[in-house]
Amino acid sequence: MNTVPAEMSPPAPIESYFLGPPLLSTESPHEYEAMFKALAARLKPQDEIEWLLMGDYLHQSVQIRRWRKAAVFLIEMMRKDALRTVLQSAIDDTVEDRDRWIDDYIDGWFKNGDAKQSELNILRRHGIDEGYITAQAMALRLPELDKIERMIGDFERRRTATLREFEYCRIAAFWRAPKELPAIIEAAADASLKPAIGEAA
User: Fold this and answer.
1) Beta-carbon neighbour count of residue 125 at 10 Å?
2) Whole-angstrom distance, CA of residue 40 vs CA of residue 38
3) What is the CA angle 13-17-20, rounded to 5?
4) Can you tell me the distance from the alpha carbon of 95 to that of 91, in angstroms, rounded to the nearest whole number?
5) In percent, how much of the chain has pLDDT > 90?
6) How far, in Å, CA of 132 to CA of 135, rounded?
7) Domain count, the chain
8) Which domain does 167 fall in, by range?
9) Are 163 and 56 within 8 A, CB to CB?
10) pLDDT tens column, 32-63
11) Does residue 1 belong to any structural domain of this protein?
12) How far apart are CA 174 and CA 185, in angstroms?
């Protein structure tokens, strides 16, 4: 976070907490820093607690994005298997060398744009489009995708709770007891001790 402007930098005692953000090798430190700056500019943390809460909010946001991308990658990984399943349903099993044809179709799909278009035309004759392949890929990984959705939901709840805690801290920091509060409390206490009208002293 060396490039973060001074007015958006955490206090010195906790500055090291934000160094070396917890990113995977495939994730961009520049994007993380941009998110850090945007949050700092929007939330304007006032003390160490608010900075730490902002850091938690940022980390939870990164986790949500990470799991969402993981779900996409998981579906993409299954695209070949999904295409095979769809082709097996579309090509009659009486066709000679059916498995070899399917292998050739799959190779062409992922290597040659023209071949992919040709195969799409074949599938459309059977009422199948590319959306079916995506749906099949998702179905093949449904248990893992379900777990990912639950992980995302958990991090979203944590993020909401962190923001709520940030708001509570901000409200508490801005609230100041009026100077006359002790006198008001003392007067109220005296009034409660005085006997009611008609009562014996």
Assistant:
1) 8
2) 6
3) 140
4) 7
5) 48
6) 5
7) 2
8) 6-76+151-174
9) no
10) 999 999 999 999 999 999 999 999 999 999 99
11) no
12) 21
Tokens encoding 32: 């993380």
How far is Cα 194 from Cα 121, in angstroms, rounded to an integer? 94
Residues 6+ apart with CB under 8 A from 73: none
Residue with tokens 């579906």: 75
Mean pLDDT of 82-91: 83
**Residue whose structure tokens are 């709520």:** 164
- Indicate the residue type of 62: V
Radius of gyration (C-alpha) of the chain in whole angstroms: 31
Same domain, 12 and 65: yes
Provide the pLDDT for residue 136.
92
> In terms of Cα–Cα distance, which of 57, 51, 68, 65 is closest to 23?
65
CA 80 to chain centroid: 28
